[in-house]
Amino acid sequence: MATLEGAGSPVAVRARRGGGRSTLGLLSGPLVWVVLFFVIPVGFIAAYSVGAVSLFPTDSGVLSLQDWGHFLGGGSIYLGLFWKSIRISLTVSLVVVLLAYPVGYYLALCVRRRKYVLLLLIIAPFLTSFLLRVLAWKVILGEQGVLNSFLSWSHVRSPDDPITWLLYGQFAVMLVLAYVWVPFVALPIFVSLENLDRSVLEAAGDLGASRWRTFVRVTLPLSLPGVLAAFLFVFIPTIGEFVTPLLVGGPSGYMFGNAINNLFTGALDWQTGSVLALFMLTVVAGLMALFGRFLQVRSVATG
Amino acid sequence: MEVATSNSARRVLTVFFVVLVLFLYLPIAILAVLSFNDGDVTFPLQGFTTEWYSRSLSNPSLLAALRRSAIVATASSAIAVTLGTLVAFALVRRRFVGKSVASALFFSPLVVPYLVFGISLLVLLTAFDRFLADSTGYVIGLGLHAVVIGHVVVSLPYTALTIIPLLERLSISLEEAAQDLGAGPWHRFRRVTLPLLTPALFSSFLIAFTLSFDEYAIASFLAGTQATWPVFLFGQLRVPSQLPQLVAVSSVIFFASLLLVLTAEITRRMSARRYGEAFASRGLA
């Protein structure tokens, strides 16, 4: 809870037990909205995935775990695709944390003035056009793209021999996803380092630890909750990613999210799509149950 | 002794920071430069032109998509700010049974992949339409209203989280003073609390607006035939001749939303600081 130092005492926010009825009155609007348009839809696809409801003539219409068994038993291509997506997302999350940690460390512990301005400089791209940022890489990495046309213009490579592996593959997907998510996770890492008690670091120094040892034994362990939060903040959305692979992934960059998207927009097998979507949600919920206490939702909106 | 870094480590980190900032902004800068290129979106540059900008202004389907996004973003952020304010009030000012469950519920859209949420809403709305068609012969269908519904759900955590810190700093003494002076609950809210909260409401509106204006995944499932700007943009990317125009408009939107986000953040920080000083000096703290 935020407190202010003023006149010797913090601002006390006196929470009132002001009548259950009026609290319910306050919350009724948001509750109705979130239950109706978030809880019920998710519950509905859960019911749909086991055939409890049917929407199309092709739907089974019988309550059964058959679709689930087929998917989990490896009877379809989707489980393999899921593991591939997990690999991509894990790699991206790791790279993003490795890139963002030095930035968070620099801003929290090395910069004294204007640190929030610099932090905003890092975060701002995240809040702006996602598609444009993906598009930029498509334009840069393509066979006739910025990079290749620059290389041939500067006679480093012949125009007939562009670098073709840059775009449409797992490399492009991972590069673009890392690019997209670095700004977002700099924040939780910064917050965890900023809240670090400096006197602990000084104590380590006074006791004779070198700076490197202080970092490895004190700073790093203390900032691990923030690192873990950052990791999850990248992993969860990237595992559900389908737009980036569509734009820069090509066939080899195809991810689990693309399969779900395709089942709903192309192949029109909504029941299988619901199974996959709910499976993804279950994995995310499992991660949240294990590590959720490290996620400070506040760090999303407040620096 | 500086405990965190030696001078050389600090220099390395400074360089790393600068390189990362370049990595973040260079691709966008390249795109912005190419939007003035008199030719394809490639190097070497062919010459300066503003043709793509003027062409996009006379492209009716492009303008229609921008207008739809503006409508969706305005409506969804207005609703999200209203609901977010209510959530913030309940979570900061009230004690009630099930508070942690309620806050988990309101913030959970932050960790649900948009893809899963988008298709869930698509399935539910489709099922509801089936039911409606069977019983009344009338359907609502997909469209901008559906996108608004979805965007409110995902913006709500952000608006609530922007308002909560300010509300926590806002001393309840002010409202109690108004009460002692005879103001009723509505009058108190209208004349005391609301004006003090305005900066937070303003910045949460801007955040929700940029989020909605830019959102593709949910909109792609729910927009139906009424493509919003990101959906339109995505659909047109396959047409090479359209690319320069799309890049031009996207660059404008990028810099406009960068400006909006900076305004939102600066407003929030300034107001938070002002409250701190005002409360300290007046002894309300």
Structure characterization notes:
The complex is a heterodimer of chains A (303) and B (285). Chain A is an all-alpha fold and 303 residues long. Chain A has a single domain (73-301), classed as MetI-like fold (Orthogonal Bundle). Chain A contains 13 helices and no strands. The longest helix of chain A has 33 residues, at 78-110. Chain A is globular, with a radius of gyration of 24 Å. The two termini of chain A are 14 Å apart. With 285 residues, chain B is mostly helical. Chain B has one domain (60-281): MetI-like (MetI-like fold, Orthogonal Bundle), CATH 1.10.3720. Chain B is built from eleven helices and no strands. Chain B has helices at 7-34, 51-57, 60-93, 99-107, 114-136, 144-169, 172-180, 185-214, 217-222, 229-236, 243-281. The longest helix of chain B is centred in the C-terminal third of the chain and has 39 residues, at 243-281. The interface between A and B is large, with 109 and 110 residues.
The CATH C-level name of chain A is Mainly Alpha
Radius of gyration of chain A: 24 Å
CATH topology assignment of chain A: MetI-like fold
Just name the CATH architecture of chain A.
Answer: Orthogonal Bundle
Structural class of chain A: mainly alpha
User: CATH superfamily membership of chain B, which one?
Assistant: MetI-like
Q: How does the overall form of chain A come out from the CA principal axes?
A: globular
Return Rg of chain B in Å: 24 Å
Q: How many strands in all of chain A? A: 0
Elements of chain A, N to C (H/E): HHHHHHHHHHHHH
* Beta-strand residue fraction of chain A: under 5%
Q: Multimeric state of these chains?
A: heterodimer
- The level of helicity of chain A is 55-70%
CATH architecture verdict of chain B: Orthogonal Bundle
**Through-space gap between termini of chain A:** 14 Å
String of helices and strands of chain B = HHHHHHHHHHH
Give the distance, in angstroms, between the N- and C-terminal Cα atoms of chain B.
Answer: 36 Å
Count the DSSP helices of chain A: 13
Uncertain segments of chain A of ≥5 residues (pLDDT<50)?
1-14
